[in-house]
Amino acid sequence: MIAARLMTHTHLIDRLPRVRGRLTANAPLAGLTWFRVGGPAEVLFRPVDREDLAAFLADCPPEVPVMVMGVASNLLVRDGGIPGVVIRLGGAFADIALAGTTVVAGAAALDLTVALTCRNGGIAGLEFLSGVPGTIGGALRMNAGAYGREVKDVLMEAEAVDRSGRLHRVPGDTLGLAYRHCAAPVDWVFTGAVFNGMPGNTLEIGRCMDEIGQARADSQPVRARTGGSTFANPTGGKAWQLIDQAGCRGLTVGGAQVSEKHCNFLINTGTASATDLERLGEEVRRRVFETSGVQLAWEIKRVGVAFGESTP
Predict the structure, then answer these.
(1) Fewer CB atoms inside 10 A, N or C side of the chain?
(2) Is 229 a residue of the active site?
(3) Which residues pair with 150 in a beta bridge?
(4) Which domains occur in the chain, in start order?
(5) Gap between the Cα atoms of 154 and 163, Å rounded
């Protein structure tokens, strides 16, 4: 566990480069995640701008693990915490600008906020983002989609900083975007994106977004402590149907439960640990495979170490 390691070794934070932003040792993460579970980050870094981020990545010891965390709407942080550095982008990365039907958004901008800004600017085509919880950075990393559209359908260009601190601006069609997949190098930290919309009527765009919002509220546990869709849909099928057919609706492990409302969602009923949630997910996968022969793939990203696991 990270906490135990901190008591016997010089802390990682003492080996990291100076920054203009904020470095926090042993930073709690549970309160930042939608599930409200998980251990601490060994170090949490909040850069003040892109240059601060690039300088840190360039000078950070190469053996130190680095990952980015947005609002953690589709993330499960394990109970032992996350070794290395967790980067959380703030306000400097959340700007949204409109030029004609072009939309420029920072990676920390909420997907919903981008959709609302487009609505107010009379830009159609990005309404689906109102049904995608999370940030633009996360949407890029997993080619997020909802209600018939995906990021790849509207992405013109993406901006990212790699582990050496080098800035990349690349056309959207070079990222290898596919169903819940992005082929960009894993060490890229997305910092922004450019999207292409189309002229639209503000009222019509608003009605479309209202329909998406109502559909989510009717079919998903939007007010629960959840992490969004747990498993990717298998080819030619629906994960929720396979889970339901396997008798998993309402299934519990500790304080974790398969949602009664939408059984491709796991819920923290109030007392769950990350271990409860992950064990429940694995039990669902086992039962689905047993009844259908389909091996469900996790859509939720599971990160960090479990209690009792050793860390480097």
Answers:
(1) C
(2) yes
(3) 145
(4) 2-91 (3.30.43.10), 93-204 (3.30.465.10), 233-296 (3.90.78.10)
(5) 27
